[in-house]
User: Fold these one by one.
Assistant:
Number 1:
Amino acid sequence: MSTASSSQKVIPAGMIDLGIGQPSPWLLPAAAMQKAAGHCAKDPGCVLLAYGVEQGDGHFRLALSGFLEGIYGMPVEPAHLLVTNGASQAIDLICTLFSKAGDTIFVEEPTYFLARKIFADHQLEPVALPMDEDGLIVDAVEGELKRSRPAFLYSIPTYHNPTSACLSGARRKQLVELCRRYELLVVADEVYHPLSYTSVPPPPLAAFCTSAPVISLGSFSKILAPGLRLGWLQAAPEVIERIVRCGLLDSGGGLNPFTSGVVRSALELGLVDKNLALLKDTYSRRMQAMCAALRSQTPESIRFSEPSGGFFIWLSLPEGRDALAILSKAKERNIEFMPGSKFSSRHGLKNFLRLSFAYYDTPDLLKGIERLVAVIGEC
């Protein structure tokens, strides 16, 4: 399978790339977006084609708040939302406004590998903190706070990338209390929160954004289409005000006014809810099939936990095995994955690898697992 050359990721013919963390091409809702665009085009006065208000179109934020209330099970104020060009741009903007070159930041070990690149762009120094099956170990955060004060803590609390771990409710409360006490800014990357399959996650850290220094990030890349480059951040009014006053928004106005208008129509027409239901059903079935194949084909020395949401399965090989070395052999057999070392700020995690079930349908996923297991056995 291959993608068009206009795609960010081009997969050679015959290759199954289980490292790719994006939706299948057929899951991209072209018809729904055409319908939403037609609805949006009726906008009187072509307001959406002008420079937008810095915080983002108020009608869109109102529609978004209603959608999030259904996902989060709690009130969401439109005034606490700011439109972004996706989570990556939001992370970059936060680095610009809330840190400076040479600052320490706290990250989880492992953490999202592309966030690591953004932090490196800003010359930030990551301190890696341990995780377990219940997410970030908050006691370790407090221990590190006694040695250094970071510009912020970057966390992926729900369906973590790459581990798919979900921070427990008790730890969320502990983390919020800690960040209040130490005035520690928490940047919560919550883009996978809507993609729950087997259980309902605890309330997002967004629930605490007005009572603690928390900025929550969300994105339509995971629940609608990544090419929209549309997301949001949720924060207290004083944080929103600081961002609104920045040079980027003062110069260019609000981010993505036209796209947010189209997505507003998709929200109001129920198209986002319909698409999210399709994604959850599709991803859940793929995940269960992939986990069943791994359980039946891999020895006990290879470990993983079945995720309850998100995109990924985090596979642990026996100590001393090097996933990066296995990857070079895997490519010869037309199978790829993401080696764990890419997610490490300590040059570790060499015996881990990340697999995604978001891109391929079940037959290709099962074929990919068969190839992967064979390569691991050979190595």
Note: The mean pLDDT is 95.
Number 2:
Amino acid sequence: MLLVLCVDLDDDLGRKTGVETPVVGRDAVEAAAVELATADPEDSDVNVLFEGIHIADSIDDETVEVAAVTGCEGDDVAANREVGQELDRVLAGLSTGEDVRALVVTDGAQDESVIPVIRSRVHVDGVQRVVVRQAQDLESMYYTIKQVLDDPETRGTLLVPMGILLLIYPLSIVANELGFPGTGFGVVSALLGLYILARGLGVGAWLDTAVDRARAALFTGRVTLITYVVAAALLVVGGVSGAQSLEAAQTDSSMALGVLDIVAALLYGSVRWFAAAGVTSSLGRVTDEYLAGEFRWRYLNAPFYVVAIAIVLQAVSAFFLGLATLEFMAIALTGGTLLGVVSTLSFAIAESRSQQRAGAA
């Protein structure tokens, strides 16, 4: 037995006419087609229903039944599931002992996405696509474009560069009006270059991860969110202070500064602020670990290490700038080293004793 199955995936038949589906039988399908054509003469599903009737009438060498099944609007997964359920009811209602085969009639590529669902229930002999001759492949092209635009990855890859390129002309007009010829092209080229560079380096994924972490820190009350912001501000201040220190060193020197002197001047002006940023961020991390119940004594080494390194760099840079003696640098190097060693030993002993007390308890 051949079942001519007309598929309306988005349920235009049910929504526009109120006809209950599935519709089984030639007369019932014809009546439903007439109702749909009356309600919306431009609906392509009208052609599907009449094509199903035409195919059923043209076959006279075997038993033929025609039926119409529908899905639902919006969700393709739910629509496919609905079509499968209606097909089960159609097959259950066919009173025949013959093997049932299906010939699926659709109006385009979108409805054909349900073919695997139909094949899981009945053998499919073929698929008949019905389109208006003047609009051959129009719906397939529309569906393909729609799928491309619905995909975030493809949308970002295609539309963003196209949008940036389309900005060249209006930006060029604005630049010419403002007396900056060529600025528009330069801005658009820079935007396109930044986009391509970001795509190549995977900056988008990194930004998404950073935003997710910041959001989690904000809503879970983590201290690091505040300390990182403060540390970033201190780093900016340190950079400005380093630049000012370099400018002062260049002003005081009658000769051009060498590379070593430039590095020393930058370090001398900025290292204190950088150390403050490191201590601030490390204390915030230690606080969060303590609040989370994952505190370890060795975590307290971080701020002491930062201070020790800052002392060493400050002394070395001051010596090269002629602001400190060799003896002072030696004392600073020794003090920084001792600070790091003492902190490491102290917190290691404290953590060992803490573990022993925990084991004894």
Note: The chain has a mean pLDDT of 83.
Number 3:
Amino acid sequence: MALIDLTDWMNEHTGQNIIWYVKRLAANDTLASGAHQAGAYIPRDFILDIFPSMNNPEAENPDKWFDLYIDSHGGDARQVRAVWYNNKIRGKGTRNEARVTNFGGSESALLDPESTGSLATFAFHLGQGGETFACHVWVCDHEVEADLIEERIGTLEPGQYKIWSVDEHDIFSLKVKHTSCWLEPSEIPPTWIQKFPTGAEIIQKTMELRPSHGIAIDSRLMKRRDCEFQIFRSLEQAVELPRILEGFDTIDAFISRAQSILQRRKARSGRSLELHIKEILLEEQLQENIDFQHQPESEPGKKPDYLFPCEAAYKDKNYPEKNLRMLAVKTTCKDRWRQILNEAERIEQKHLLTLQEGVSENQFKEMINAGVQLVVPEPVVSAYPKSIQPHLQTLESFIGDVRILNIGRS
């Protein structure tokens, strides 16, 4: 599909009484994991909101059939079923969950294992009483399409979802549960209100709130990532919401402000994971520019995220190639993994750290054949197909390998 088709689709399915639900498809959403109940996870409370006729706890497994069109893939049209399995609240079982079923088999773009990692947008059309009567879906084929959607709604990371509606005129529409990392206005340094802090400054605050004591490396990374997101959003609300509530003299002024906020979110998403990795390497007693180097130059115009031990060793032709390592850091990897193949040409096997919740077996085979080793935080490993899990490397394991190389160097 051409990008103009996606732009037209977004405009056609944006308006009053249309609500978007957007998420990146995990292996458990598609058929990649082999799960029997495949289909994109949609929160129970949201399903009951858009199907109010189902919100009947006394009924047994209330459901609703509606029309669903996957417009991105030839207009695949079918009737699907929203159902609330509610036997737990009726004292007759253990289930209290809602699902959408009847998508069909692997021919559906929503269930195709190759869609794992893709950004999927569900545009629910509401009729009388706020009841959904139809849903139009776009499953992105590549990251260029995903970028276009994120330009409108903001960045969306693996494991997150976003509920967005133009009716709300709300660029803060992502529902965030407050944790101990959410900063109240009185807890925010005054200088941060005057000038939005850098990513490195926010990371330092994250480390204060989530120190390393007794926390395994991979869990530490994931906990800090969540904490940093809370800090960022609480700061964003404290800085931007008062300005928005003041109002704007022109539509252009509002659009300019919104674009600035969305761009900051995008910049934060692309950079913060790198910075978290750097701080963990330092905490694990690896010395910067001796044991590792961040953003070095491997070849003219090429800068991998991390080289081990350092740029000087990499450029020393007498330094053994078997003792060199490269680590690329990408929040999602479905299409972007190929970008790392021409980085650090002396290093045959490229290590890639990602937070993406699964890849298909075919995608994984492509990576292996291209010499890419996936590094996945331990809490995310279970999201991958069982056949792939034994071949993944955790961050802790990767750092352990680097330590062994350092011992051999000394």
Note: DSSP finds eleven helices and twelve strands in the chain.
